[in-house]
Specification:
This protein has about 425 residues and is α+β, with helices and mostly antiparallel strands. The chain folds into four domains: about 1-180, no CATH class; about 195-255, SH3 type barrels (Roll); about 255-270 and about 320-423, 2-Layer Sandwich (Alpha-Beta Plaits), CATH 3.30.70.100; about 275-315. The protein is about 60% helix and about 10% strand. The chain contains 18 helices and eight strands. It has helices spanning about 1-10, 15-55, 60-65, 70-75, 75-85, 95-125, 130, 135-160, 160-170, 175-180, 180-195, 240-245, 250-255, 275-280, 290-305, 320-335, 370-385, 400-420; strands at about 205, 210-220, 225-230, 235, 245-250, 260-265, 345-350, 355-365. The strands form two sheets. The chain has a five-stranded antiparallel beta sheet. A hairpin with a 7-residue loop joins strand 7 and strand 8 (about 355-365). Helix 2 packs antiparallel against helix 5 (about 75-85) and helix 3 (about 60-65) packs across helix 6. One of its GO terms (biological process) is cellular response to osmotic stress.
Length: about 425
């Protein structure tokens, strides 16, 4: 500043104009230094850093670069020049230093915020992130960062120690608890969800209370984001997963089997003992030949042992078409390539009712993918409905309009034929 004033004085500038011009020139010089510093950092230093990051074998530093941590950090260079130049202007030194320091604090907060985002992104590249997500903890760290940053900025502007402001916050603790109630509940819920391994990103959950039925795509401090099967998004409060019940399908996915539990209803009037002709036809069926042969030998031995009168089918033991059909389905499922062989496989009768005799298939597919599972289930029941008539059975079905019209036409035909014979 003295050098500038001496040079101006040599040119005949004096008085108020001398101070005004010297300050203006010094401001322009400092501004030029800031521009040069910014240019040097961004065009030279940053390029060197980017080149080093792009040409090494690590990937985590590329994520830091993508989050622009170094770009935000470069804004500190001009701020340092302004801060240490404040002494040149004694009258405005305190104001300039406070403004520069406030700017540096804000830049530091943005750098740390971007760094936390980078830490979360780096952590997501590991498989453990699906089991132990840390996004909720990152959000808590951000809240603490912004609170501390705001306190430091205010303390810098009013010229007080930040600890004095922090001590005064004790009186506002009740208000803060109310403001951050959801965040506190979310943090506690997040710790419990993570420690008990209750839900992970990628799990399929059902929560009827919130109309949620889909895959968990994100777990944050306050919410769990679920993409439903119809591609809609449901936001569930994190603490709701602790306070309310929900169903997690992860066990099914991990086990490698998805349950098939469906019944086919048999018309009970079609159930009968097997005739000789039916038995001969059943012995031609690949899945039944061994069963029928073994069963006939067992029945014959039992009836001879107990001296059963075979003139009536009611006496002794006999094969029934429903029993043979049940055995056929059992063998068919055991030999099906999409049925899990190491899990429960049952073909059982349930209590008969108004809709006939329910024959339930209880098995597990070896592919848990929804589309494949539905296709396997449909193929199995397509086959079952197609082979039922082979066993002399009928599927129960309530009368439809077509059935009523058919009966009406049959009754009219039976009425016309006798009249025509009489004529």
């Amino acid at each position: 500043m003295a050098f500038i004033k001496n040079q101006l004085a040599e040119f005949g500038v004096g008085g108020v104009m001398l101070d005004y011009l010297s300050n203006l020139i010094m401001v322009a010089f400092i501004a030029l230094l800031c521009v040069l510093a910014n240019f040097t950092v961004k065009k030279l230093v940053l390029r060197v850093i980017i080149h080093i990051i792009n040409n090494n074998r690590y990937t985590w530093d590329n994520i830091i670069l993508e989050k622009k941590v170094f770009h935000k950090l470069s804004h500190l260079a001009p701020a340092f020049i302004i801060y240490y130049s404040a002494a040149i202007f004694p009258l405005y030194q305190s104001l300039i230093e406070k403004a520069a320091m406030t700017y540096m604090i804000i830049v530091t907060i943005t750098v740390l915020n971007a760094l936390l985002d980078a830490v979360d992104a780096i952590y997501r590249t590991f498989d453990v992130s699906r089991i132990r997500p840390i996004k909720g903890y990152i959000q808590v760290a951000k809240i603490i960062l912004f609170i501390i940053g705001t306190i430091v900025v205010i303390a810098n502007l009013i010229g007080q120690n930040p600890l004095i402001i922090l001590s005064g916050l004790g009186a506002l603790s009740a208000v803060l608890m109310l403001i951050f109630k959801d965040s506190i509940l979310g943090l506690v819920a997040g710790v419990q969800l993570s420690s008990n391994d209750m839900v992970r990103v990628g799990d399929w959950i059902e929560m009827p209370k919130y109309n949620a039925d889909g895959e968990v795509i994100d777990i944050t401090l306050n919410t769990v984001k679920v993409m439903n099967f119809d591609k809609t998004i449901t936001m569930i409060p994190s603490y709701a997963l602790i306070s309310d019940s929900f169903r997690n399908w992860r066990g099914m996915q991990v086990s490698g089997g998805r349950r098939i539990k469906r019944s086919v209803y048999i018309d009970t009037s079609s159930v009968c003992f097997c005739t000789r002709e039916m038995i001969e036809e059943f012995q031609k069926i690949h899945y039944l030949s061994d069963y029928v042969t073994a069963k006939l030998s067992e029945i014959k031995a039992y009836n001879i042992e107990h001296q059963v009168n075979m003139e009536s089918n009611v006496n002794g033991r006999q094969l029934t078409n429903i029993g043979v059909f049940r055995a056929y389905i059992q063998e068919y499922l055991r030999n099906h390539p999409k049925i899990h062989k190491d899990m429960t496989l049952l073909v059982r009768q349930l209590a008969p009712g108004d809709n006939g005799l329910p024959l339930e298939i209880y098995a597990f597919s070896n592919d848990t993918t929804w589309g494949v599972y539905e296709s396997v289930q449909a193929d199995i029941f397509d086959h079952i409905f197609a082979v039922i008539p082979t066993f002399g059975l009928r599927v129960f079905q309530n009368p439809t309009g077509h059935d009523i019209v058919h009966l009406k036409e049959k009754a009219e035909l039976q009425t016309i034929i006798p009249l025509s014979n009489n004529h």
